[in-house]
Amino acid sequence: MIVLGIESSCDETAAAVIEDNRVRADIISSQIDVHKVYGGVVPELASRNHIVNIAPVIETALSEAQVTLKDLDGIVATSGPGLLGSLVIGLQAAKTIAYTTGLPFVGVNHLRGHLLAARIQDEDGTPVPEFPYMALLASGGHTGVYHVKNWNDIECLGETRDDAAGEAFDKVAKLLGLGYPGGPIIDRMAAIPGDEVSFPQALRQKKSYEFSFSGVKTAVAQHVGHLEGKPTEDQMHAIVRGFQKSVVEILVRKVVLAARQKQVSRVVLAGGVAANSGLRNHAMEICGQNDLQLFAPPRKRCTDNASMIAYAGLLSLSAGERSGFDISPKANWPL
Ligand code: KG4
Ligand code: ZN
Question: N or C terminus: which one in the chain shows less Cβ crowding within 10 Å?
Answer without folding.
Answer: N
